[in-house]
Specification:
Elements (H helix, E strand, L loop, with lengths): L13 E4 L5 H12 L6 H8 L5 E8 L2 E11 L2 E9 L8 H15 L4 E7 L3 H9 L3 E6 L10 E7 L4 H11 L5
Parallel strand pairs: 4-5
Antiparallel strand pairs: 1-2, 2-3, 3-4, 5-7, 6-7
Helix pairs in contact: 3-5
Length: 177
């Protein structure tokens, strides 16, 4: 199955390149997941317009988007721009598969590290990021707007190494398709 293949069966999740026709659904999910701090349609359009400097994926099950994630890559560094999974798909490996695919893309582009911010009250996401070798670097007070919620800055270093690739394989093998 290629990255742009349609979702196979009802229960299976396909990771596809995020396209403009996904945006209405993504923006609605963004509001459900991130409430007042949600990205706007314009921000997603701006991200997609960045071309090869960005890599966005949608997780599709039965023709419905159940998750999405985006990555920026530049000069040996990468940055998880966003990652979200619908409430009814959490705990089923969708976030794990999305993050693994983003990190594989970062490695393919020559990135040596990956950074991100995550809300301090999002323990589920922090657990996921820790599984992928992300460590806390610091705290950004009032980072998310307009809510004013704080964020941890996290980083995974040496993502270009063989050991990291093996860890990615191991983590990804724990989830079903």
């Amino acid at each position: 199955m290629t990255e742009d293949s349609p979702a196979p069966g009802r229960g299976e999740v396909a990771l596809v390149r995020l396209r403009w026709w996904h945006l209405d659904e993504i923006v609605e999910l963004e509001r459900d997941i991130f409430a007042e701090d949600a990205w706007t349609a314009e921000l997603f359009w701006s991200e997609l317009a960045q071309g090869l400097a960005r890599h966005y994926l949608a997780a599709v099950r039965g023709g419905r988007v159940v998750g999405y994630g985006g990555l920026a890559v530049h000069d040996g560094e990468s940055y998880v721009q966003t990652l979200g999974v619908t409430a009814d798909s959490r705990g089923n490996g969708v976030g794990t598969r999305l993050l693994a695919a983003l990190l594989r893309h970062a490695r393919m582009c020559g990135a040596r590290r990956c950074d991100l911010e995550v809300r301090t009250d999002n323990s589920t996401a922090r657990t996921l990021y820790h599984r992928f070798g992300f460590v806390d670097l610091g705290l950004r007070r009032g980072y998310y707007q307009p809510s004013g919620a704080d964020a941890y800055v996290m980083s995974a270093r040496h993502i270009d190494t063989r050991d990291y690739g093996e860890m990615l394989d191991a983590v990804e093998s724990t989830v079903s398709r």
